[in-house]
Specification:
- The protein is about 45% helix and about 15% strand.
- The protein is of the alpha/beta class.
- It has two domains: about 150 residues, DNAb Helicase, Chain A, CATH 1.10.860; about 260 residues, 3-Layer(aba) Sandwich (Rossmann fold).
- The strands form two sheets. The chain has a nine-stranded mixed β-sheet with strand order 3-2-4-5-1-6-9-10-11, sandwiched between helices.
- Strand 4, helix 15 and strand 5 form a beta-alpha-beta unit.
Length: about 475
């Protein structure tokens, strides 16, 4: 593998980055905040990057043919498509060192810019401008050196925090983020925040998809917040049936496979009419490739103003790139989703499988989160879901020691919360419709045997032992 010192020509450094992106488009998403036109000094390289970036901004996939077709032929010196493809295939592989190349070009660009600013400052001084005016101009130019970075004074950021506090006070504690409709989570977290990556994790059959569908339905139907749901497990019909089940109380199995009574059919029709304008979007022809997903999310945000995206689920997402292990691939894909949430200023919730426990408690832990180190590092919130009743466990014991009967309840655990901390609570799980709703103590009363019960059994000679 060639290193930076092996490539003496600056144009080769630039091409190495561009061609690496064309071979592995996820590189762009990983380093989007450090990639900009200023890195490319040669006209042809700058034009190829411009074409590549315009595809991303339009929500399109990065592919060789569209990138080539979007270039001004004069600026790339009339290179034929075959020659273009040949150059890409023969370019040195720098995948492991691409971050170093990008950093190197950024340092080079900042130095060149500084020299240019200094030269212009000298010219202004010679022409008679005051030293204070020249220094102010130079300072403004240097402050804006990196096109991909937006600097903000901490006082301005603090003002935004105060605005959020004032907003909640004036609006009777209304959330500053996007509510999920689950009371205890929203009170603790203030809802999904923009730029957040939320990991919803659980074992199979514990309700992670149902939890995501519940939150998405509430956000779209109740709060009219545009939501995109990308499922690699279910067809759009199956996903729609789940949403309809939660909305009507008729199980998705009944909706999909059984003949409905007229009352049930009428109930479905009425509910569909109520939510026909709800901004809940599904991609019906979804590919598992992460670059396809990135393009779809870009399009949904641009076209439908989507604010929350759900991906079901992480371990089914793939990449065209080759990785040493599945864990490495999953970690890279997780970082791509986190960077995308920041770039588009939206919330992205990604569902993840947990490793099955071989022994001990089935309660979710960070160590059971697949590729836990990389996923945990990228995530702003890690939200576990499990149903002790499924394992024959009779009680749910919260972290503060509060006990609950496990029947019809799920244990929801915020195991990581950047800036909010950790907590846990219970929610009611309606198994026939896979619907999560807020826990209400009066709906769950333990049946206790009292003295009067015992007397009645003895009197009726009906002692139960």
């Amino acid at each position: 593998m060639q290193t930076l010192t092996d490539l003496q020509n600056q144009g080769d450094n630039e091409k190495a980055i561009i061609y690496s992106i064309l071979r592995r488009p996820e590189i762009y998403n990983l380093y989007a905040d450090r990639l900009h036109a200023g890195l490319f000094s040669q006209q042809a390289n700058k034009e190829i990057f411009r074409s590549l970036k315009s595809l991303v901004d339009a929500g399109e996939k990065i592919e060789i043919m569209p990138v080539y077709g979007g270039c001004d032929q004069k600026l790339i010196q009339g290179v034929s498509l075959n020659s273009f493809i040949k150059e890409i295939s023969e370019a040195p592989y720098i995948d492991q060192d691409v971050e170093n190349y990008i950093d190197y070009l950024n340092v080079r660009w900042e130095r060149v810019l500084f020299l240019n600013v200094t030269a212009e400052g000298n010219r202004r001084m010679i022409s008679g401008e005051s030293i204070h005016a020249v220094m102010a101009w130079m300072s403004s130019q240097i402050e804006n050196t990196h096109q991909g970075t937006k600097f903000i004074k901490i006082s301005e950021s603090m003002a935004l925090v105060l605005e959020n506090i004032e907003f909640r006070a004036k609006n009777n504690g209304q959330l500053s983020g996007v509510p999920t409709g689950l009371r205890d989570f929203d009170r603790f977290s203030n809802g999904f925040q923009k730029s957040d990556l939320v990991i919803i994790a659980g074992e199979t059959s514990q309700g992670k998809t149902s939890l995501a569908v519940t939150a998405a339905k509430n956000q779209s139907f109740t709060y009219r917040i545009p939501v995109l749901f990308l499922s690699l497990e279910m067809s759009h019909l199956q996903l729609s049936a789940r949403v309809m089940a939660q909305q009507t109380g008729i199980s998705s199995k009944t909706i999909l496979t059984e003949v409905l009574y007229s009352e049930e059919f009428e109930r479905l029709q009425n509910n569909i009419l109520k939510v026909k304008d709800a901004p809940f979007f599904i991609d019906s022809g979804l590919s598992s490739d992460v670059e396809d997903m990135v393009a779809i999310i870009h399009t949904a945000v641009a076209k439908h103003k989507v604010e929350v995206v759900y991906v079901d689920y992480l371990q089914l997402v793939t990449s065209k790139a080759r990785y040493g292990t599945k864990e490495e691939e999953v970690g890279t894909i997780t970082r791509i989703f986190k960077n995308l949430a920041k770039k588009l200023n939206i919330s992205i919730a990604v569902l993840s499988q947990l490793r099955r426990t071989q022994s001990g408690s089935p309660k979710p832990t960070m160590s059971r989160l697949r590729s836990s180190g990389q996923i945990e590092e990228a995530a702003d919130i890690v939200w576990f879901v499990w149903r002790p009743e499924y394992y024959g466990i009779e009680d749910i014991i919260l972290n503060d020691g509060t006990p609950f009967p496990s029947q019809e309840l799920a244990h929801l655990i915020v195991a990581k919360g950047r800036n909010i901390g950790i907590t846990d609570f219970v929610a009611k799980f309606e198994k026939p419709t896979t619907h999560f709703v807020d826990y209400d103590a009066k709906d769950f009363k333990r049946e206790e045997v009292g003295v009067d019960d015992v007397k009645a059994w003895i009197k009726n000679d009906n002692i139960p032992f």
